Records
---
Amino acid sequence: MNVSRWIDDLEAGWHHRDPAAIAALFTEQASYHQGPFGPPHVGQEAIAAHWAATLSRQKDPVVWFGTPVGDAGRACVEWWCILHDPATGTPRTAAGCLVLRFADDGRCAEFREYWHGAQETATAPAAGWIR
């Protein structure tokens, strides 16, 4: 499994604002958990809808990913992004961690995302953080 390539493809879908390309990175019945408490988005259609809604609330993303860590079809990777509100241009910064489990074909079967955000700020990650 090439986790770095999967992350690069996720980042490309994000930059190109392409929810279908992002959903194609997941298995047909993948579960996509955003945080520990809410119900997951299940399946490519639900994941594409989630990303379509997410992308509608942001513009001009600048995204960084850390070096993935993992083995045997599982990986974790930190991420950081600066986004802007599409209506006001107000910046937002968010940082978090992805926990991924991959199917044999290299697509993600289980995705767990934990993150924190800072409103009205555009803060880049610390030096040395970027992979």
---
Amino acid sequence: MARGTIIPTLQLLLLAVCCATTVVHGKEWTVGDSKGWTFGVSGWERAKRIQSGDVLVFKYNPSMHNVVQVGEGDYNSCKVSGPSRTHTSGNDHIKLAPGGKAFFICSFPGHCQQGMKIAVTA
């Protein structure tokens, strides 16, 4: 290879490596680990290094539970009164947006009070 083509080739290679390393796929976290989204899952998130772009996977029986993304006030009161988004598939994949906290509860009567809620900082 001629000397004049080595430098442009190296620059192109470096550019390709840089572009490849900026494509980052978030990690998937199964909420509640092997137990899934169930009673007593509150606090599961505390020991995790969850980041923006990561995906929370909620696995549960949809005839018995749901996942509702709520604001902090509704999370604390275990009541859905403000804007929310309800998931009901039993295998919900929710990608975390950058910045701030995300709050999730089960809105079936009494479930949030029994620990079916998590607060994640991304």
---
Amino acid sequence: MNRTPLRLVLVTGGAVVGGFLALSFVSSVAIQGLRAVTEAKRKKIAPPCVVCKGRRFMECKLCRGNATIEWSPLYDPVVTKPCVCPTCEGNRVQRCLNCLGKGYA
């Protein structure tokens, strides 16, 4: 049995798939580099965020910096339990929602 036509199809298919993968990798690297350059320029000339004043974090809005919230499983609670804040996970600060933690607007 002659296997050269099958080998030709496999080699050609492998070359096409490899070419697509290589092209995809090169384009993704180029896009990431372009984004990094653009972000660096934007950071250099942008004013600081007015909400967090460039600190990138702000006091948690849900627990108001207490790290815990009062929670009860019932609508009209008889007993409330302190639980760790789900927004800041007990860290008392959260990422600025205005600048998304970048520090500039």
